[in-house]
Amino acid sequence: xxxxxxxxxxxxxxxxxxxxxxxxxxxxxxxxxxxxxxxxxxxxxxxxxxxxxxxxxxxxxxxxxxxxxxxxxxxxxxxxxxxxxxxxxxxxxxxxxxxxxxxxxxxxxxxxxxxxxxxxxxxxxxxxxxxxxxxxxxxxxxxxxxxxxxxxxxxxxxxxxxxxxxxxxxxxxxxxxxxxxxxxxxxxxxxxxxxxxxxxxxxxxxxxxxxxxxxxxxxxxxx
Length: 223
Prior knowledge:
Layout: E1 2-6, H1 10-22, E2 26-30, H2 33-42, E3 47-51, H3 59-68, E4 75-79, H4 84-92, E5 97-100, H5 105-119, E6 126-129, E7 132-135, E8 141-143, E9 146-148, H6 152-162, E10 168-169, H7 171-178, H8 189-201, E11 210-213, E12 217-220
Parallel strand pairs: 1-2, 1-3, 3-4, 4-5
Antiparallel strand pairs: 6-7, 7-8, 8-9, 10-12, 11-12
Helix pairs in contact: 2-3, 6-8
């Protein structure tokens, strides 16, 4: 999952970005409304965390513009304002949720997970493909009765596959959802991580759950 954080408070952005990375998400940052709107238009983000009070263009206008352009990425608005009319204005502009500063990071992370579940086909925190189960809250992964230990990046890639079972996932799609804007697209990291995942989730003697689709990418096979 790839998240965009738009806020002119660089210290707060740093804290949120670090927390999102620890939660297993890739995270980009923008520090004014114009930059945030531009990044949201050119990149396929899974969620946007958007402050209201920003230079160049405020968050309400950014949200309204994105919705007018048909960009329906979930938006979680942040603001120091807690007046009812400000919350109404943000939600009416197209935001999906609203969080008043200051806030606990745990609450922010929970709201992010809730919005991502809202967009998914299932409302359960558990994703299942056959006997492979991933819990998006506890971040535990198991296949059958076997618990699987994954690194943060391995978890992020597997979650993306499990949200799109049987779909062909290209290397570019994996890069865009599991790495941030600074990722070197000419590296072979995607293939390295796919090999690691296969070693961890596959059962010896059985066909790999993650199949290679020649000339296209990969597919997580669902029974």
